[in-house]
From TrEMBL, chain B:
<dbReference type="InterPro" id="IPR041522">
    <property type="entry name" value="CdaR_GGDEF"/>
</dbReference>
<comment type="similarity">
    <text>Belongs to the CdaR family.</text>
</comment>
<feature type="domain" description="PucR C-terminal helix-turn-helix">
    <location>
        <begin position="479"/>
        <end position="535"/>
    </location>
</feature>
<dbReference type="Pfam" id="PF13556">
    <property type="entry name" value="HTH_30"/>
</dbReference>
<dbReference type="Pfam" id="PF17853">
    <property type="entry name" value="GGDEF_2"/>
</dbReference>
<protein>
    <recommendedName>
        <fullName>PucR family transcriptional regulator</fullName>
    </recommendedName>
</protein>
<dbReference type="InterPro" id="IPR042070">
    <property type="entry name" value="PucR_C-HTH_sf"/>
</dbReference>
<feature type="region of interest" description="Disordered">
    <location>
        <begin position="183"/>
        <end position="202"/>
    </location>
</feature>
<dbReference type="InterPro" id="IPR051448">
    <property type="entry name" value="CdaR-like_regulators"/>
</dbReference>
<dbReference type="InterPro" id="IPR025736">
    <property type="entry name" value="PucR_C-HTH_dom"/>
</dbReference>
<feature type="domain" description="CdaR GGDEF-like">
    <location>
        <begin position="327"/>
        <end position="432"/>
    </location>
</feature>
Length: 344, 538
């Protein structure tokens, strides 16, 4: 039962996608939203994976790299089309639907823009249920799908096709993204709708549209539940050590030390490596990846990024439950603490 | 070997002791550190912590020490296992958050700069041989005390530095702080009151004075609950007793030496001043006198011109005598002594032998101001710029402060230092004459006072010789008594009245005295006999 995401719903979708998204600067977010509004026309068709014919070729589209770079180095506007057409040429087949890799802020809007430009439906769901830093950290990968062949389009007209074994995609992708200017639109995980049904975290697009409706509590944006861990006052932000050097992530490990201002007055430590990986309260583990740990500023209700954390800031620490598949042995291996270099 | 030590040396070392006693010297400790350490476990990954036994010192290495998060998790798990403490290499965890967590969990966290594996070996050794670890501390303290020498302040500095977590103070016998930390003095309780269950303990050691009394007390206290620690501290305190005794002796010596020096200076001043005028520089003349000694010229009335001139000559002579006299006069001035103008001598005389000169000096200068104090005759003498009446008043207030019964005398006022000798003599005589606790003035002395001041003890022997012919025949002493009465009263009649006998009796006795060979008509013989009687009958 397909439906249209109109401009009004687009706004709500964008707001919902921001509820727990980290790394979302104002300027790239508004840029992506304006871009989506300019191409949405009468609306974008939203379908469930099951509504598609089983053999329909679906492709995941996302933004790769730094959103800050996107805000400074503007897209030409043809990146989504070029990247999908490149993949189509490689596969010798037209795609029938676009799906999101994850639904965090701009990453939610880029697939919608792609669907609008190509006039194909957007699948209601994503490959994460939350956001992970690596292209390989998806439920699609957990379900046995390969991110390659992967096409990448840069803002200056670059077009790159990556074909490699599944485990090396991130390694090859990162320097290329840097080389094309810090951000790129990627099309990856080409798969039949029948497979997508199996590996998708379903219904997350419509969930975020509902969550973005004004007056809806933030918790509505968490498909598998959310828990407020505690409130904390940031005491210090330190560089961190002790992370497994074998694990290569785009950013350096850091550590945020907080103190509960009241109640138990616990000493809370958020260990971050690209995202918050581990939360300790008085030395005891209270949350880890694959659940998503995020800081929401108590002053403005906005998500506080790891690199925005500064002493004196008061935040609520929220834990967004990951999809059940992330808590399986395979899921933990791909998105658990060890995947982020923390040997508990 | 253990027999010589007090009980407690075999008790397991506590975490605090590891840090305080040198095993972990230089380490930063957060938390109370009161737990005993019975063993060591090296932990390289967090999962090992589940098998750590209680009272174990957990030494973190490898991934378990690799970052703040790992150390915090290790602290949590060590706490769950009732470990004694967590020892982590510095740098893994910021010390402020480590401190907060140590306080919250009540587990002791120690940051070390050295290789944790070396630390682990030393802790293991201390845990297995607590007495050896404690002996090591005592040995180190002994070495440091030797280096500190005989300074009370340095000795206390060593004690407070080498016994961290412990405050040590040195108190005099009245409990007044001499050196060290005031909190030890305030918090220190008498030994024995601090039981094992009471947080806080104290240890003491007495420092003897030269007579074997108590010069002062070393008091140590702290909050450590280690059963072995007070005993170790007590041992270290006893090591400090000898250097402190040496310190006290040296200070006494210095005070005595100072007295001797200032006394020598006073004698030198007097000697210079009394030097014959012929020895003084002849060329100074009237102009030199006027310009060199305006103070003495102004202070001495012109009517006393000769003495003023001689005073001035003495002053200028001393000044022009060059390098020799100059420093003496300079030193006297620096000491605040009166060296010019009219002055009055004094003498303080203890009734029973000389006491501590340094103490006498202190007490006399406290009453009279900056004056020289020298040993003279049987007492202490010097001079002051005060007039005799004021000086006598000051001495009256001074005498009760002396620890021995003393008398004092004040000489006549003289125009200058060169005449101080005669004033000193008068003061000495007056002091000898005065009863203990009183002050006599030489310028108020009459004949009776002079007789009273006769040194009867010294004269008794010659008097006995002179009177021997008489004493030989005088069986019951009546002849001596009669002779004294006749000489004192000036005739036989009055003597008979005084003795209550008939005049003829006196005449008869006088005849017997004359037969003994005494010519009572010779004035010299009469004077000698009268003095002899006075001495013999007093």
């Amino acid at each position: 039962m397909s439906r249209l995401i109109d401009l009004d719903e687009l706004g709500r979708f964008a707001a919902g996608a921001r509820a727990f998204a980290t790394g979302a600067g104002d300027s790239p977010y508004h840029l992506a939203l304006d871009w989506a509004r300019s191409v949405a026309g009468k609306g974008v068709e939203l379908v469930t994976a099951g509504e598609l014919r089983p053999q329909t070729l679906c492709v995941a589209v996302s933004l790769a790299g730094s959103t800050t770079a996107l805000g400074e180095h503007l897209p030409r506007g043809d990146e989504p089309e070029r990247v999908v057409h490149a993949l189509e040429r490689r596969l010798g087949e037209r795609i029938g639907a676009v799906v999101a890799l994850n639904l965090a802020a701009e990453n939610a809007l880029v697939p919608l823009i792609t669907a609008a430009l190509l006039r194909v439906p957007l699948v209601d769901g994503d490959g994460s249920g939350r956001v992970f830093p690596l292209v390989e950290q998806t439920t699609y990968a957990l379900g046995g799908m390969s991110p390659a062949p992967l096409a990448l389009a840069g803002g200056s007209g670059e077009l790159i096709l990556l074909e490699t074994e599944a485990g090396r995609v991130e390694e090859l992708l990162r320097p290329v993204v840097l080389a094309v200017g810090g951000w790129a639109v990627v099309a990856c995980y080409p798969m039949a709708a029948a497979d997508l049904v199996r590996v998708l975290v379903p219904g997350t697009v419509s969930l975020l549209i509902r969550a973005g409706t004004p007056g809806t509590p933030r918790t509505a944006a968490a498909p598998f539940g959310v828990q407020r861990l505690c409130r904390g006052l940031i005491l210090s932000v330190e560089g961190s050590t002790g992370h497994d050097a074998e694990v290569s992530l785009p950013s350096q490990p850091s550590s945020i030390v907080l103190r509960e201002p009241d109640g138990m007055r616990r000493l809370v430590r958020l260990e971050a490596h690209n995202e918050i990986v581990l939360a300790l309260a008085d030395g005891a583990v209270v949350a880890t990846v694959p659940d998503q740990i995020c800081m929401i500023g108590t002053a403005d209700g906005m998500v506080v990024d790891v690199d925005e954390a500064r002493p004196g800031l008061e935040v609520d620490i929220m834990v967004v439950k990951a999809a059940p598949v992330w808590h399986t042995a395979c899921g933990l291996a791909l998105g658990g603490p060890r995947a982020f270099g923390i040997a508990l | 070997m253990t027999g010589v030590r007090a009980p407690g040396w075999e008790a397991p070392v506590t975490v605090t002791e590891l840090v305080n006693a040198g095993t972990l010297a230089g380490a930063r400790m957060y938390g109370a550190g009161e737990n005993p350490v019975r063993g060591v476990r090296i932990v390289d990954e967090l999962s090992v912590l589940g098998t750590v036994a209680p009272h174990t010192a957990v030494v973190l290495i490898g991934t378990a020490a690799s970052g703040g998060w790992a150390v915090e998790m290790a602290m949590r798990r060590a706490w769950e296992q009732a470990a004694a403490c967590v020892i982590a290499p510095s740098g893994g965890l910021s010390e402020s958050s480590g401190e907060v967590l140590a306080e919250r969990l009540g587990i002791t966290l120690i940051f070390v700069d050295e290789d944790p594996l070396l630390v682990a070996v030393r802790v293991a050794s201390a845990a297995s041989r607590p007495d050896a670890a404690r002996m090591q501390l005592v040995a180190r303290c002994a070495t440091r005390l030797v280096e500190a020498g005989t300074s009370a302040r340095r000795v206390l500095g060593v004690l407070n530095a080498e016994l961290p977590g412990t405050s040590v103070a040195f108190l005099d016998r009245h409990g007044v702080l001499l050196a060290g930390r005031r909190d030890a003095a305030a918090g220190g309780r008498p030994e024995g009151e601090a039981g094992e269950s009471v947080p806080g303990w104290s240890a003491q050691a007495e420092v003897p004075d030269q007579e074997g009394g108590v010069l002062g007390t070393l008091v140590a206290g702290g909050s450590s609950r280690s059963p072995g620690w007070p005993s170790v501290v007590r041992t270290v305190l006893s090591l400090a007793v000898a250097p402190l005794t040496a310190w006290a002796a040296r200070e006494r010596l210095r005070a005595c030496r100072d007295f001797a020096r200032q006394a020598a200076l006073a004698e030198r001043l007097l000697a210079d001043a009394a030097a014959p005028e012929a020895d003084l520089a002849p060329a100074t003349g009237a102009a030199g006198t006027a310009s060199a000694t305006p103070a003495s010229a102004a202070a001495v009335p012109s009517a006393a011109a000769p003495s003023a001139a001689s005073s001035a000559a003495a002053s200028s002579g001393a000044a022009s005598a060059g390098e020799e006299a100059g420093p003496v006069r300079m030193a006297a001035v620096a000491l605040g002594w009166p060296v010019r103008g009219p002055l009055t001598a004094y003498q303080v005389r203890p009734a029973s032998g000389a006491g501590d000169a340094a103490l006498a000096q202190t007490l006399i200068t406290a009453a009279l101001g900056q004056v020289p104090v020298t040993v003279r005759g049987e007492g202490w003498a010097g001079w002051s710029a005060l007039d005799p009446a004021e000086l006598a008043g000051r001495l009256e207030r001074c005498l009760p402060t002396m620890p021995w019964p003393c008398s004092a005398g004040v000489g006549a006022q003289v125009p200058g230092l060169e005449a101080a000798g005669e004033s000193l003599t008068g003061a000495e005589a007056a002091a000898a004459m005065a009863d203990p606790g009183t002050v006599a003035r030489a310028d108020e002395m009459g004949p009776a006072e002079l007789l009273g001041a006769l040194p009867s003890r010294a004269l008794r022997a010659p008097a006995t010789v002179i009177l021997r012919p008489l004493l030989t025949i005088d069986r019951d002493g009546t002849l001596l008594e009669t002779l004294a009465a006749v000489l004192d009263e000036g005739g036989a009649l009055k003597a008979a009245e005084r003795l209550g006998v008939h005049r003829n009796t006196v005449t008869t006795r006088l005849d017997r005295i004359k037969t003994a060979g005494f010519d009572l008509d010779d004035p010299a013989t009469r004077l000698a006999l009268q003095l002899a009687c006075h001495v013999m009958l007093r």
